[in-house]
Write a structure and sequence with these properties.
- The chain has one domain: Tetratricopeptide repeat domain (Serine Threonine Protein Phosphatase 5, Tetratricopeptide repeat, Alpha Horseshoe).
- The chain is built from 11 helices and no strands.
- The protein is an all-alpha fold.
Length: about 230
């Protein structure tokens, strides 16, 4: 009896599937998905514009964050909105919520190096060093020429609070940073000093901040990663 019932259920499901397949529901779903993606992109751009408002007050931050949240609501796969929302939370010192946004960004696009990099910074801020190291390494594995990730990983390996300290590895990543960073990058001086001074114990570490995702940068990262 159970076997017969199972066959009947399977046949019923197949009949339902063929009815759906023969209709235009796939086309309607695709159109709806495209519309949601377009709406999310528009809201994301509005969020970027809102961040440029001056004076840059708490109200401006919350206004921009509202646009990013709406973009995420329209399209949960809008990784750029997840990242920039996380950055706003990070800037307000809400590292717990920032980590949540960055984790969702990674879930939306596991190959997004910026999402991995920013998550590593948020984890390091809470001294979750073991997990932070994993995400710095993932960012570099996805995008080997990611200068900022090399720089922060170099500093990560010098942090006296970090039980994963490794000065030799720090020198390697700082040299990688010097190789890939823009020649006008102000952090090049910090990197050279750390290497030339043989990484003294009391050196002042100046870590780079989380990276933002603008439309042009997002397209550039997709091109490099693809």
């Amino acid at each position: 009896m159970l076997k017969a019932a199972s066959i009947l259920n399977k046949e019923g499901v197949m009949r339902w599937y063929h009815r759906i397949e023969g209709s235009n529901m796939y086309e309607l779903y695709d159109r709806s998905r495209r519309e949601r993606q377009a709406a999310a992109e528009d809201l994301f751009r509005r969020g970027l514009a809102a961040e440029q408002m001056r004076p840059y007050t708490h109200s401006v931050v919350m206004f921009a964050l509202a646009f990013y949240r709406e973009a995420i609501h329209c399209d949960p796969m809008c990784v750029e909105a997840w990242i920039n929302a996380g950055n706003l939370c990070f800037s307000m010192g809400d590292f717990t919520r920032a980590r949540r946004y960055y984790r969702n960004a990674v879930a939306a696009d596991p190959r997004n190096a910026t999402a991995c990099y920013n998550l590593a910074i948020a984890l390091e801020e809470k001294e979750l060093f073991l997990e932070a190291a994993v995400w710095y390494e993932k960012a570099i594995a996805i995008h080997p020429c990611y200068a900022d990730a090399h720089y922060n990983l170099g500093l990560f390996c010098l942090n006296r609070r970090n039980f994963l300290r490794n000065p030799r590895k720090a020198i390697f990543h700082l040299r990688q940073f010097l190789e890939y960073a823009d020649m006008r990058d102000a952090y090049r001086g910090h990197a050279r000093k750390m290497i030339d001074d043989l990484i003294p114990q009391d050196i002042h570490l100046v870590r780079r901040s989380p990276a933002a995702m603008g439309c042009e940068q997002a397209e550039s990262m997709k091109t490099i990663e693809g």
